[in-house]
Amino acid sequence: MLEMRPDCETCGVLLPAEAPGAFICSFECTFCAECAEDLDDRCPNCGGELMDRPTRAKALHAQYPPSTTRRYPRQA
Questions:
Q1: What pTM does this model have?
Q2: CATH architecture of 1-76
């Protein structure tokens, strides 16, 4: 199950698990669409490809809660 991180690691914008617009690499580093585009869809942490993150239905949040740990500002 994906961790569904709550924010963009570069700019800090909120990325709710039930909303589209988040991009992740295979390590689940998470970025908003604008930052992913600025990064040319390459993760600055691992060099992996950034892909659309699937959404998680709000009705499933109680049983399968998304992460609440913020990653912004990104640790270098």
A1: 0.91
A2: 2-Layer Sandwich (3.30)
